[in-house]
Amino acid sequence: MNEIRPDRVALVTGASRGLGATIARRLSHDDVRVAINYHRGAERAERLADELRAQGATVEAFGGDVTDPDQVRDLVQAVTRRLGEVDTLVLNATGPQPERGFEETTWEDHLAHLAFFVKSPVLLGHALVDSMKRRGYGRIVHVGSDVTARPVPDQTAYVAAKSAQLGLSRAWALELAPFGITVNTVAPGWIPVERHADATPAALEAYAASVPAGRLGDPLDVAGAVCFLASPAAGFITGQVLHVNGGSTL
């Protein structure tokens, strides 16, 4: 394995399973030191860290609710102490996404989604951007959703919060570009992961049939896009939305 550059430290939120775990795995294969953040999935996160360390990667698991200011502060301090200063932030954490019609969707439902997709990025950004500015380098990648361009029914709060996250990402990109910090969004379509274990074969087939590429997406499709935007090679790309959905938003 090549020598790991000490300045490549990535924090991936919500990385104990699903897209986050695949992104963490892929980043570690790029010789990046990876902080696997989890909230309740401690056992899964530690298993993933053990797996990647066995392959020669420098990876640690860190618990913390990324919607809580005190826990975000403690998380960033712990990552910095054990892995070094974070130069790459991947905002992947999410919460439950119940299907509810507009009239059944409460303001509390909206706040629950905004906590993950706006509050959490703001807390983490405040905790990390100063060190990125000081070093003149940083990569922030939001894991968004193509629902901002292709809304779905019964997901009003989710669509609204993901749209707010996209606006946040673009505003940050403009403000942080002079400091060598890029901010981009990877917007997947429906990528089945563990949380979709109850999806029926008929639902999966129907969605795949609606995708111009003719197939369902794979978590590796998303991880590849995230890792490119997180890499030094993407230094002149900022404020962009990369849809990873087989052409569904064409």
Describe the structure.
This protein is of the alpha/beta class and 250 residues long. It has one domain (9-243): Rossmann fold (3-Layer(aba) Sandwich). Helix content is 44%, strand content 15%. The protein is built from seven helices and seven strands, in the order E-H-E-H-E-H-E-H-E-H-E-H-H-E. The chain has helices at 18-29, 42-54, 69-83, 107-135, 156-176, 201-210, 219-229, and strands at residues 9-12, 33-38, 59-63, 88-91, 138-143, 181-188, 241-244. The chain has a seven-stranded parallel sheet, sandwiched between helices. Helix 2 (42-54) links the parallel strand 2 (33-38) and strand 3. Helix 1 crosses helix 7 (219-229). The termini are far apart. Residues 1-6 have low confidence and may be disordered.
Mean pLDDT: 93
What is the CA–CA distance across the termini?
Answer: 40 Å
Shape: globular
Task: Sketch the major β-sheet.
Answer: 7 strands, parallel
CATH topology title? Rossmann fold
> Helix share of residues?
40-55%
CATH A-level architecture: 3-Layer(aba) Sandwich
Total DSSP helices: 7
Neighbour order of strands in the largest sheet: 3-2-1-4-5-6-7
Low-confidence stretches: 1-6
The CATH superfamily turns out to be NAD(P)-binding Rossmann-like Domain
Radius of gyration: 17 Å
Order of helices and strands: EHEHEHEHEHEHHE
User: Structural class of the helices, strands and pairings?
Assistant: alpha/beta
The share of residues in extended strands comes to 5-15%
**Tally of separate domains:** 1
Q: At the first level of CATH, what is the class?
A: Alpha Beta
How many E-type strands?
7
